[in-house]
Amino acid sequence: MASQTHSPTDGTHEAIDIPQAEHGAGFPPFDANTFSSQILWLVITFGVFYWIMKNVVVPRLSGILEDRRDRIAGDLAEANRLKQETDEAIASYEQALADARAKAHGIASETRAKLKSGIESRREKAEADLAVKLSEAEAKITGMKNEALSQVEEIAGETTTELVKVLMGKAPTKTDLGKALKAALN
User: Fold this and answer.
1) Is the pLDDT of residue 119 over 70?
2) Number of domains comprising the chain
């Protein structure tokens, strides 16, 4: 019972008609004659898969999850330990820095006090030296002044004698000159 059909592209095509009784009553899972065997195989297959999941897959997954949980807990503990060590190191560093600043401040204060006392002692010594030099200079000036004043009478007398000589043509006597100078100086 072959029938021929014509295909527009390749020429001819043969189709074979098979009677319905030869290939079954329809879709096999819906065949009522095979329900009991299908249910049996379904239960056996489900049981085997359940046993495999329960005894093989789930324990392996549980082990993997437990290992992962332990690793995460260990990593967190290590991170907390390192954080604590870091905090302690920072606190130690800050304490050392504070100690160093305090020590530096103490050294600066001590040095400042030493320099101040040294400067004060040098200033006092310089003032004492200046006072001595000042008194020596005043004594020298007083001596020069006295010497100059003692010579003023003599210079004034010589100058007056020359002026009187030029103006009057004759030099004054020493007694007249002495009396005039004493009167002018007082």
Assistant:
1) yes
2) 1
